[in-house]
Design a protein that fits this description.
By secondary structure, the protein is mainly α. The protein contains 12 helices and 4 strands, in the order E-H-H-E-H-H-E-E-H-H-H-H-H-H-H-H.
Length: about 250
């Protein structure tokens, strides 16, 4: 969302934000803007950049050693995902978590992935076997992230697991749509992920989904998915009490 000019913060506050952003080693074979977007998105979702943090385009450009154009493009993409609020001619501010938007994202994802599981359970034998092998390989990565607990590694493996489902069902572009809408619910998940027992429950739910797909049991796979995706939203009231200043 873009807002008119307003006065939000001091230079000291902006400098504090920059200290949380590591230098970005750009891959020169890729455009800069997507790399800046990915780096800032992860910092926001992981709360290394907290709601209310101010991001100045010129200062980010100097910090990353690139022009302002890719910074602008990255911030606009973050704005499209509602992860930042853009104040024209002044600054960009990391947004608070919008619970209404998170619920809508959850509804969209659940509807799509329930249908995906139906499709995956009737794949031709060769495709089905390959999918199950890939999902089990992903599960091994998730389990390795449990001990010792590596939250970023587990979060990436979680995303890769679901992306594999979309790709196998031949609806890969829908993953981009879901990701674009998922910024708020991603942050809720990241707040919930370190809680005792939560990482183990994620892997347990994923394993139940894979086992049901392997049996070509669509109802069981769908039930496991419902339990998996409902986990974070069941903790919303607790999260609101723990982080009231971050949620609207």
């Amino acid at each position: 969302m873009i807002y008119p000019d307003c006065h939000l913060t001091s230079p000291k506050d902006r400098m504090n934000a920059l200290t949380k952003i590591a230098p970005l080693k750009l891959d020169r074979t890729r455009q800069s803007a997507p790399q800046v977007f990915e780096a800032l998105r992860e910092l926001i979702v992981s709360f290394q950049l907290e709601p209310g943090t101010v991001l100045q385009r010129a200062e980010l450009a100097e910090h990353f050693g690139i022009s302002q154009t890719p910074i602008r493009d990255a911030l606009l993409r973050l704005g499209e995902e509602q992860l930042v609020d853009i104040f024209a001619q002044h600054a960009t501010v990391v947004s608070r978590i919008d619970l209404s938007a998170a619920l809508q994202s959850h509804f969209l994802r659940l509807a799509i992935e329930l249908e995906i599981l139906n499709a995956l359970c009737v794949l031709p034998q060769a495709e089905h076997g390959g999918l199950v092998r890939r999902l089990n390989a992903n599960l091994a990565v998730q389990e390795a992230a449990l001990n010792p607990l590596d939250v970023p590694k587990l979060a990436l493996a979680d995303q890769a697991f679901h992306q594999e489902l979309y790709a196998a069902a031949k609806v890969g572009p829908l993953w981009s749509l879901v990701r674009k809408q998922s910024g708020h619910v991603d942050r809720l998940r990241r707040l919930n992920l370190p809680d005792e027992g939560k990482p183990q429950s994620i892997v347990r739910d994923h394993r139940a989904i894979v086992e049901a797909i392997a049996r070509q049991d669509a109802p069981a796979a769908q039930q496991a998915l419902r339990q998996h995706l409902a986990g974070t939203l069941s903790f919303v009231d607790d999260i609101k009490q723990r982080f009231p200043e971050w949620i609207v």
